[in-house]
Amino acid sequence: MGARELTTAFRNRQHYIRILKEKAREIAGVQSSGSVHFEQSKLLKTFRLHPFESSLHVPENWKQTSKQRLLESLKGIVPAEKITNCDLFLCALIHPSYVRSRSVRAAVAMPTELTYTGSSTLRLLREVAAVHGLDDYLQRDEIASVTHKLQVSDLILFDKAYFVECGAHYETGVAIPEEVRLAAATALCGAVTLSEDVHAAALLLDQLRDLRNVQTVSGAVGEDQTSST
Q: How far apart are CA 119 and CA 186, in angstroms?
C-alpha cells in the first residue's frame, strides 16, 4: 500500500471514528433527557428453554448454577438482568450433540444467531489486532480456554459418546473436547455481543488475556524459585 492509500485509509478511519463519537453523544443525550425509553430486545427477553425442558433432560440445578457462574464471571461486562432475564447465555452452553430433536436443537443448542455473531466478532477482533501487529491474538488455544477462565467448562452439555465415536476429535481422559470448548466460547462471545456490543466482547477477551498473562508469569516465577532451591 502506497503513501497516498495509507493517508486516505487514515483519513477515512478518522472520519468514521468522528461519526461514531457524534452518534454516541446523541444517544447519551437522548437517554439522559428521558424522552425515549430503550427496551430490551424481545430476542434477549425470550426464555427459550422453558418449552423444551421436559425433553432436554438437563442436570438438576444446571440452570441455576450456570447463571450464577455467568453472573460472577461476566460481572462488569454484562448487566446481571440481561443474564437472568433470558436464556441466550444458557443456550451457549448446550452443544448441538446434546440434543436429539432437530427442531429443539436449532432453537436452544448454540443457536445460529449466537454462533454467527460470535464468529463475526472474533474474526473482526483478530483483524483489528493484526493491523496493530498482534498476530497471536485470539488464536485457537486462547479461544478454547475461554470457558475455563469463565469457570463454566464443567457446565457445558454435550454428548460424550458422540465424540468417543468420532475418535479423532476426542482423546481419552480429556474432560471436554477442544471442538466443544471452541464452540461454547464462540457462542458465549456471540451472546455478549448480542446483549451488549462488540466493545463488551473485546473487554471480556482482554480481561481473560490479561489473566492468562498473569498466570503465565506466575508459573514462570514458580519454576524459577523451584529450580533455584
A: 6
